Amino acid sequence: EVYLIAIFVASWQLGPISEFMINSYCDSLNDTFAQWVFFGIIKAEDAQCFSIESSIEAGSYILALGAVVLGFVNSFINKAAIQYFRDMEEKVPMDLEQSSNTEFSADEVAAMTKEIRPVPVLF
Q1: 54 near 11, Cβ under 8 Å?
Q2: Which of 54, 103, 110, 119 could form a disulfide with 11 if both were Cys (CB 3.0 to 4.6 A apart)?
Q3: Coil, strand, or helix at residue 109?
Q4: Spatial distance between the Cα atoms of 25 and 33, rounded to a whole number of angstroms
């Protein structure tokens, strides 16, 4: 995310910073550029020693959206893993002798039903 913010800020500031830093050293070429503009060899906006034009294209926004989606998916999967490990810790092993075709009375089923608690969902 920090990388994407740095790209956005750099693309907005790259043009003015490049003109400020480099064009101050090219003052001796200003007369030459002025003549070239006068004779129509170059355009007036190109009459400088160094210039960079940067822009943010659609792919940058798609990349930012992908980073946001990745953050949500990562959070969801981490919480699901925590829930899984919590469930595994609370899981009580069944006694094999009790699980063999034992029928319960209605009173026993009612008592067991009251003891059943749903697992809280953590995500």
Answers
A1: yes
A2: 54
A3: helix
A4: 14
pLDDT tens readout for residues 43-93: 988 888 877 888 889 999 999 999 999 999 999 999 999 988 888 887 765
DSSP at 24: G
Closest by CA position to 86, among listed 39, 35, 41, 120: 120
Rounded to 5°, angle at Cα 52 from 51 and 55: 150
Positive or negative, the CA dihedral 14, 19, 21, 26 is positive
Identity of the amino acid at 4: L
DSSP structural state of residue 100: S
Torsion of CA 80, 86, 90, 93, to 10 degrees: 60
The reported pTM is 0.55
The radius of gyration of the chain's CA atoms, rounded to the nearest angstrom, is: 35
Residues 6+ apart with CB under 8 A from 29: 49
What are 9's two structure tokens? 């800020």
CB atoms within 10 A of CB 16: 10
